[in-house]
Amino acid sequence: LVVGGSYIALECAGFLQQLGYEATVAVRSVVLRGFDRQCAAKVQQNLEEIGVEFLEGFVVEKIQKEESGALWEAREAAGAAETPAAAKSAKNDPKKLLVFLKNSQNGSSLALRFDTVLYATGRDADTKLLNLEALGIETGEKGKIICDKFAATKVPSIFAVGDCVKDFPELTPVAIKAGEILARRLFGGSSEVMDFSNIPTTVFTPVEYGCVGLTEEEAIAKYGADRVEIYLSEFMPLETAAVHRQQKRRKQLQQQQQQQQQQQEEEEFLDLSPICLSKLVCVREDPSSSSSSSSSSSSSSSSSSSSSKKEIVKGVHFVGPNAGEVLQGMALAVRLGATKEDFDNTVGIHPTNAESFMLLQITKRSGKDWVAAGGCGGGKCG
């Protein structure tokens, strides 16, 4: 059982399932909070299709360690007296954990047995033993150090970067980059300050999810639905589509027999659904910022009207194989202010999944089906 809906929780569930263990994820609310909701749902769907079970809305109330089955059998055979054979058997048969869960939404309860329970519900900064208060350094919630934009604490000679800092993205490359920038500023005469906008990241589930910039929800909240355009496509990568594989999916069914709920598992053979999702979050330029004055010429007005239709790419999201590799270059494009027209005018490398971003034409607003029926992965053929 993996407890939590964070990227670490889903990554652990994914690799455990692929190592041959049966992984179940207990999620209190939603998976991948703070990420694009459509992409998060796609990640969950892909995990479910390789056999990961999700208990949505459930929180752990209690964990109880049980005697192993082998130990109980040996005790019964020996008249409930523990024998050396029973003790030896118990060592080879790991104890089960009885986990009591409660649904935070409807109040229903479950009691399930697992070999292991892994918690991935967040982290605290281990700063207590540093006695920072004695130095005058302020800390906030979860022991995190309070710094300004220059990574400086209230003590002029003490700086901090990384996960121990309040409101700092908990990502290793961000800490490394912030440390490099701080070192250049302290010892190299630089005036550069870390820019925390448009940081790319990837969730390393079996089918990865990489993103940079705004989510669909963030873009709508910031710019309004009328200015936001979502371009997207779902498709099967070429290496998967070529062999027409079918994937086993484990599905947990609950049945009520003799007024007691029993659980059983069955295997279904399902066609593997398209595992890739390419998505551009675009924002139209604010017409008021590019409108011409009343004294402008007609040609100038025409130019202004044309430029007001430009769509700036504010977010790139990709669920699919090697998403981290795909998104590294996309992050540069977003930082440089690329437009949808720039993407459209760029020649794609065929046949690749990244090529899909140069070919996106269907918008969510249009109501058209964005799921590709065939083709060479992210390409247009087929």
UniProtKB/TrEMBL annotation:
Provenance organism: Eimeria tenella (Coccidian parasite)
Protein name: Thioredoxin reductase, putative
Gene Ontology terms: biological process: cell redox homeostasis; cellular response to oxidative stress; glutathione metabolic process
Keywords assigned: Coiled coil, Disulfide bond, FAD, Flavoprotein, Oxidoreductase, Redox-active center
Cofactor needs: FAD
Record carries keyword Ligase: no
GO molecular function: flavin adenine dinucleotide binding; glutathione-disulfide reductase (NADPH) activity
Coiled-coil annotated spans: 243-270
Pfam families assigned: Pyr_redox_2 (PF07992), Pyr_redox_dim (PF02852)
Domain Pyridine nucleotide-disulphide oxidoreductase dimerisation: 199-248, 309-358
Protein family membership: Belongs to the class-I pyridine nucleotide-disulfide oxidoreductase family.
Ranges of Low complexity composition bias in the record: 288-307
Residue span of region Disordered: 287-307
InterPro entries from the UniProt entry: FAD/NAD-bd_sf, FAD/NAD-binding_dom, FAD/NAD-linked_Rdtase_dimer_sf, GSHR/TRXR-like, Pyr_nucl-diS_OxRdtase_dimer
Domain FAD/NAD(P)-binding: 1-179
Recorded GO CC terms: cytosol; mitochondrion
